[in-house]
Design goal:
The structure holds three protein chains of three kinds. Chain A is an alpha/beta fold. Chain A folds into three domains: 27 residues; 197 residues, Rossmann fold (3-Layer(aba) Sandwich); 141 residues, 3-Layer(aba) Sandwich (Rossmann fold), CATH 3.40.50.2300. In chain A, 42% of the residues lie in helices and 17% in strands. Chain A has 14 helices and 16 strands. In chain A, the strands form four sheets. In chain A, strands 6, 7, 8, 9, 10, 14, 15 and 16 form an eight-stranded mixed beta sheet that branches. In chain A, strands 3-2-4-5 form a four-stranded parallel beta sheet, sandwiched between helices. A two-stranded parallel ribbon of chain A has the order 1-11. In chain A, helix 5 links the parallel strand 4 and strand 5. The N terminus of chain A is likely disordered. By secondary structure, chain B is mostly helical. Chain B has one domain. Chain B has a two-stranded antiparallel ribbon with strand order 1-2. Chain B is globular, with a radius of gyration of 20 Å. Chain B starts with a helix and ends with a helix. The N terminus of chain B is likely disordered. By secondary structure, chain C is an all-alpha fold. Chain C is built from eleven helices and two strands, in the order ααααββααααααα. In chain C, a hairpin with a 3-residue loop joins strand 1 and strand 2. The model of chain C has no long low-confidence stretch (mean pLDDT 86). The chains are: A alpha/beta, B mainly alpha, C mainly alpha. Chains B and C meet through helix 6, helix 10, helix 12 and helix 14 of B and helix 4, helix 9 and helix 11 of C.
């Protein structure tokens, strides 16, 4: 890059940032992977193997950084060099790739590594090495533990938080609740169940009348659904990924099961779940959400949607417009952008972590009222969600934004 | 590092020959110097390659030398890894001790699995072992065992710091441990293959009925080979758990079995040393495929695999053997 | 009692899925004396081709039969192009090539059609029989039976079918009596790919179409084929239904197993059957000589 361009970029950045930038310009502090013109960010994603569907997140993050590099000249005049490696959702591979990012590519931080077992494999490593493991793409609760793991932070509402909010919803809205649960037999499924149980406390054993799990290798979950209906429950709590959620919805109607259908946010997508399962079948499903559903036609005319769509068409044309992963990636990349902006020219790993723990941000594809807030003692950026009901075409809010605190 | 290793796949090191002291000596010297020339990450990769090589050698003893298929060696790898992790995590055992213990536990597991497997041959055995490989992660996740295995969350394994009298980093130390263990395991395998037992194993592979009629106790040898094979893989698993510092059911899916199998075939089933190349292949080729195209990395890996089989239908060791024969004819 | 009946019927419905794929497994086994580990991914890929044609505006049945033909040709081509040069390579190398094919089909499908699940239409009417078993499952049951009769007839009554079996069982002797062994293999591949395509198109409406659709199902397909007897198409279908039912009943009535270990049940079933009836419940005994 020529000097003229660099200069103009710096000027633009200074102008944009005003006070913060000018004061920080005085003493530039750089951690590994940062120069006057670039910042290296690492990432691991499953681009291959059974979990490859999630790679849409990694791709949309890369597309977003492309966008800010092209349109804004990066962040504060530094281009973002996003190195995203494939770990195939295998913890040993994650460890190998993360070590490559940290030790060979010298990244400033690792961002949005995807998956609970995969991030667990590098959790200690990152904290020993004092490298920020920012906004990991998993909803486990252990990512918000600043005391023991000051270098790790989650992003999305934890699965347990959502489980608790569902517990609150059930207790407020259902008379004599009897809950039947379908969950995926892994950390994600179990966390949702734990959250619900925590909220229900002593009453959990009497309220939850049936629990059934499935494996990702199971062809169908029909057998489980029959057992759950047989329990006589009047609330069905579905903790499954899109494919199985769509199957569950179909079977739920086929069985003529008269119960309140609660669906976890992982599968709360019109395009990826409700449409394949049948829009009519999906009527009345209640879920909790924190960002806008990009397949909901009622938001197609809104500004935030148009901005997101323009971004998709321009920078990620192969991306699936009906996948919520792309919105997720779009939002989480903006969160990191904000952290880097706040860090100004003090781009040490310590300062990045400090700024990550100092966020108060509203993004425009989020549901109104849901904020990204962190503090040195609060490493859970998003904790609020809104109950919504699917009316066969779109989502209708059926309550206020709620959070466990 | 591994390119050096790869060229060491010398035919004279295979069955029925003497160990060429010079070549092995050279190999040991190069292997010993490498950690000081490479960074921490490369050392870590080298360690993983050697761990895979041990596991692949274990698989090869079973398949290449005894003719029993296995597509489920990830199960034994997992048992070894979890043995080490549980002993360290729950009982605070010293990590070094857990490596042989992991091997012994796997020997017993392998021997016991080998007993019913006696009745299965070829394809059926491949499927039964594949089934084992698929079932083990599920069993590890099972709520009945959660207290022990940590369930889906897995277990952390902490390594003690490097003893002060050693001027090594953690990565270098474990590189040397893996290197040493690998040399010992290869030496044992070499002796085994060149013993009476080894000849019995191969006789069973080549013609089971004839071997039986000549008085070889085929059942015993087959189960024992299963045990020994599992022992090797268990040692590798235990070391992997310690080097990666973490175990989870998702680390040991059937894909690992398939990778080990690929490593064995690509390395060559009729040699011991091919396993090192196999370990190198399964660690580096997926990374290489990813560099070509992220979205299609599996497809590229598949194409590379098929091409390798075209060029080397009996593995690297097979090619080396072939070249040796050709060169001898020319001379 | 109601629960029991429902679990049996659901088991039958799942069994139909397994049986369908098990037929393809048996078919290829008859032709190459080996399993094809890429069978599931090939079927998945065929199903995507059909999906793409339907999405492109072709009527269901046109796309259906076109897919069968494309898959047949594709299977034939794989044998001729990829496996022919490897005829003399060890079996282990073949298995590695199968693995390579799995990776190629899976990854390519993901790259072309992405990983979001897709709805695949059913040729049968919507709805269910008294809420117990879907009409699609019933239709699928009949499709499986028709394929079974077709395969049975093919091997029993046509010269080419018998020649194919001979070529697989003893290639050398078959060659001596004038059977073109190479082309028999290719034909077997083609037929297996076509049967796999039908299986894929029948299964996709139930489980939804995605690149990993066949991951678990193929395992059940193998289990069914082995339980029933790898040399017997009828046995494989029966094995499919048996695995489906036993798996559901064990998951429902044995508390220690529950849904958590359902797959493990199928695997224990394979091993048990193999221990007592090494050729499957309905398979022929094979005698080997020194």
């Amino acid at each position: 890059m020529n000097t003229g361009r660099k200069l103009s970029l710096t000027i633009a950045a200074v102008a944009a940032l005003g006070m913060v930038a000018t004061s920080a310009l005085a003493d530039k502090m750089y951690g590994p992977g940062v120069t006057d013109t670039s910042i290296k960010i690492g990432n691991t994603n499953p681009y291959s193997g059974p979990a490859a569907a999630y790679s849409a997140i990694g791709k949309s993050i890369a597309a977003y950084f492309d966008k800010i590099n092209k349109e804004n000249g990066g962040v504060n005049g530094r281009m973002i060099e996003f190195i995203s490696l494939d770990d195939g959702y295998s913890p040993p591979k994650t460890k190998e790739q993360t070590r490559k990012l940290v030790e060979q590519d010298n990244v400033l931080l690792v961002f949005q590594g995807l998956g609970t077992p995969t991030n667990s494999a590098v959790h200690n490593y990152m904290n020993q090495k004092k490298v920020p493991q920012l906004f990991v793409a998993t909803g486990a609760t252990k990512w918000g533990d600043p005391e023991n793991y000051p270098w790790t932070m989650g992003w999305q509402p934890s699965y347990q938080t959502e489980g608790k909010l569902f517990g609150a919803y059930i207790m407020e809205n259902v008379k004599d609740p009897k809950v039947a649960i379908l969950y995926q037999n892994d950390d994600y499924g179990k966390d949702y169940v734990t959250g619900l149980r925590d909220y229900l406390g002593d009453k959990a054993d009497s309220i939850i009348v049936a629990e059934e799990s499935y494996e990702v290798t199971d062809p169908t979950i029909n057998s489980q659904m029959i057992k759950l209906k047989d329990s006589g429950a009047n609330v069905f709590y579905n903790v499954s990924t899109p494919k199985f959620a769509a199957q569950a919805i179909k079977k739920f109607r086929e069985l003529n099961w008269d119960a309140v259908f609660l669906n976890n946010s992982v599968s709360n997508s019109v395009g990826a779940v409700y449409k394949p399962a049948g829009l009519d079948n999906s009527k009345g499903i209640i879920s909790l959400q924190y960002f806008q559903d990009n397949t909901d036609p009622s938001i197609f005319d809104t500004e935030p949607y148009k901005k997101w769509k323009a971004f998709m068409t321009e920078y990620y044309p192969d991306g699936d417009l009906s996948s919520s992963f792309t919105v997720y990636g779009y939002l989480v990349a903006q969160t990191l952008e904000q952290v880097l902006k706040q860090a100004g020219d003090n781009l040490t790993r310590e300062n990045v972590m400090k700024e990550a723990a100092n966020l108060d941000l509203e993004l425009d594809m989020m549901l109104p009222g849901v904020k990204i807030q962190t503090s040195p003692t609060d490493f859970f950026p998003i904790e609020a969600m809104m109950p919504i009901e699917f009316d066969g075409e779109k989502f209708v809010p059926i309550g206020k934004v709620v959070s466990v605190n | 590092m591994a390119t050096d290793v790869e060229t060491r796949a010398d035919p004279r090191l295979t069955v029925g020959a003497k160990i060429p002291i010079k070549l092995v000596g050279l190999f040991i010297i190069i292997g010993a110097i490498l950690p000081f020339l490479l960074g921490g990450y490369a050392n870590f990769q080298g360690t993983l390659i050697m761990i895979y090589a041990i596991a692949i050698l274990g698989l090869n003893l079973l398949t290449g030398f005894n003719g029993q298929f296995s597509l489920g060696h990830s199960a034994f790898y997992a048992v070894g890894a979890y043995t080490a992790a549980i002993l360290v995590y729950h009982l605070d055992w010293p990590v070094y001790v857990t490596i042989p213990v992991g091997g012994v536990v796997c020997f017993i597991a392998g021997f016991l699995f080998g007993l019913p497997a006696l009745r299965l041959e070829g394809l059926y055995l491949a499927l039964a072992t594949f089934a084992l490989g698929v079932a083990v992660p599920q069993i590890l996740k099972s709520s009945h065992l959660e207290g022990l295995t940590g369930g889906v969350q897995g277990l952390d394994v902490f390594r003690p710091p490097v003893p002060e009298f050693l001027p090594l980093t953690m990565d270098q130390l474990w590189y040397y441990i893996a290197f040493g263990v690998m040399l010992i395991m290869f030496w044992i395998a070499w002796n085994l293959i060149n013993s009476r037992t080894g000849r019995a194993m191969m006789a069973i592979r080549d013609n089971p009925i004839a071997a039986k009629s000549m008085g070889v106790n085929a059942s015993l040898y087959k189960s024992l080979t299963f045990g020994v094979s599992a022992f090797y893989t268990g040692i590798a698993g235990a070391m992997a758990a310690i080097v990666i510092e973490f175990v989870a059911p998702d680390s040991f899916t059937f894909q690992l079995s398939i990778l080990l199998f690929i490593g064995m075939v690509v390395g060559g089933t009729n040699s011991i040393w091919g396993a090192i190349f196999g370990g190198f292949f399964i660690l580096t080729v997926p990374n290489f495929a990813e560099e070509i195209s992220t979205g299609l990395s599996y497809a590229i890996f598949g194409v590379i695999l098929i091409l390798v089989i075209y060029v080397l239908p009996s593995g690297v060791a097979g090619l080396v053997n072939l070249l040796r024969v050709r060169i001898r004819k020319l001379l | 009692m109601d629960l029991f009946l429902q679990q049996i019927l659901t088991g039958l419905a799942n069994g139909a899925i397994y049986a369908c794929l098990a037929l393809a497994v048996v078919m290829i086994y008859q032709a190459i004396d080996h399993f094809n580990f890429a069978q599931g991914e090939m079927a998945m890929f065929s199903t995507y081709i059909c999906w793409a044609m339907i999405a492109g505006g072709l009527p269901y049945w046109v796309a259906f039969f076109a897919t069968i033909i494309i898959s047949f040709v594709g299977g034939l081509a794989i044998e001729r192009i990829i496996f022919k040069p490897l005829h003399s390579a060890p079996v282990l190398s073949h298995v590695v090539v199968f693995i390579g094919l799995v990776a190629i089909f899976n990854s390519t499908a993901g790259a072309i059609w992405d990983h979001t699940i897709k709805t695949f239409p059913s040729p049968f009417p919507d709805g269910s029989f008294a809420g117990l078993i879907g009409l699609h499952e019933i239709g699928m049951f009949f499709v499986t039976l028709i394929m079974l009769l077709g395969i049975f007839g093919f091997f029993r009554f046509t010269r080419i079918g018998m020649a194919m079996q001979a070529a697989a069982a003893n290639p050398d002797s078959a060659g001596l009596v004038g059977i073109r062994v190479g082309w028999m293999l290719a034909l077997g591949w083609g037929l297996a790919a076509a049967i796999g395509a039908v299986a894929g198109m029948m299964i996709a409406p139930i489980v939804f179409l995605d690149p990993n659709m066949m991951l678990g199902i193929l395992l059940y397909g193998f289990a069914s084929a082995i339980v029933g007897g790898i040399s017997s198409p009828g046995g494989a279908v029966a094995g499919g239904f048996l695995v489906g039912i036993i798996e559901n009943l064990a998951g429902t009535y044995i508390p220690a197993i529950g849904s958590e270990l359902k797959l493990t049940v199928a695997l224990i079933l394979i091993v048990t059957v193999l221990l007592f009836k090494p050729n499957g419940l309905f398979g022929k005994t094979i005698v080997t000589r020194v």
